[in-house]
Amino acid sequence: MGTAKLDGVQARDFDFFYLVQQWPGSYCDTKASCCYPTAGTPPANFSIHGLWPNYNDGGYPSNCNSGSPFDPSQISDLREKLNEEWGSLACPSSNSLEFWQHEWEKHGTCSESVLNQHDYFAAALRLKESFDLLGMLEQAEIQPDGREYSLSSIQTAVNSAGIECNTDESGNNQLYQIYSCVDSSASNFISCPVLPSSQCNSVIVFPSFPV
User: Fold this and answer.
1) What distance in Å separates the CA atoms of residue 205 and residue 210, rounded to the nearest whole number?
2) 107 an active-site residue?
3) DSSP 3-state assignment of 48?
4) Which of 29, 71, 104, 128 has an alpha carbon within 20 to 30 A of 78's alpha carbon?
5) Residue 82 phi/psi, 5° resolution?
6) Considering only CA atoms, which of 31, 144, 143, 155 is closest in space to residue 164?
């Protein structure tokens, strides 16, 4: 695998990807709230936050190639699926292009040794489709119903992927994002070499969506 460039400076090869999926209910029930994308109300499912190159020591490269700007025409055939699986919940409501631009320019440009712009977004969509988080949780009788579940039961249900929590408007600790690890070719899921800080209590809420 080649090396990425950070504004002309060689950046070392990354070791793996995080596929980061977020629960929209936990984005929308915070004090900051949310705005649905102009494409419509998101499905009641996890959505993609990003596909992030990472190092085994927990660090990560970012903004690796200012000469490779986001080009919407490169992903025109993916737009319908991206709207469904990777829509922005930030306010004000948008067509998600700025969200995708941010993800490509901060993270995607650091994977150009293996994925061009189209393949970067296509890989994230393919990986999400093959890792049905909501189905795995529901199979373990963990539902987005506003009830509390043990963190350990959630970790077991999703094969020990990384769990990140946030806090709702009432101060409840809740399931927010799940980090799954993928090899550096963006082909196969692997055991995570390192997990992010979880900010989770031992028992957390899995909020409903729409809220």
Assistant:
1) 15
2) yes
3) strand
4) 29
5) -65, -40
6) 155
Strand bridging mode 148-150 / 203-205: antiparallel
pLDDT in tens, 14-56: 999 999 999 999 999 999 999 999 999 999 999 999 999 999 9
> How many other C-beta atoms are found inside a 10 Å radius of the C-beta of residue 68?
16
d(CA 203, CA 1): 41
Helices (H) and strands (E) in the chain, counts: 6, 9
Residue in 80, 84, 85, 107 annotated catalytic: 107
R_g of the chain, CA atoms, integer Å: 17
Give per-residue pLDDT as tens, 140-194.
999 999 999 999 999 999 998 899 999 999 999 999 999 999 999 999 999 999 9
Q: 103, 105, 112, 164: which one is catalytic?
A: 103
* Residue 49 annotated to the active site: yes
Spatial CA neighbour of 121 closest among 77, 178, 177: 77
**Which position among 49, 85, 105, 112 bears the catalytic label?**
49
What pTM does this model have?
0.93
Give 126-138 pLDDT, tens digit per residue: 999 999 999 999 9
Q: From residue 209, how far is each of 70, 124, 134, 172, 200 by CA, in Å?
A: 31, 23, 12, 16, 20
Does the active-site annotation cover 118? no
Element (H, E) at 135: helix 133-139
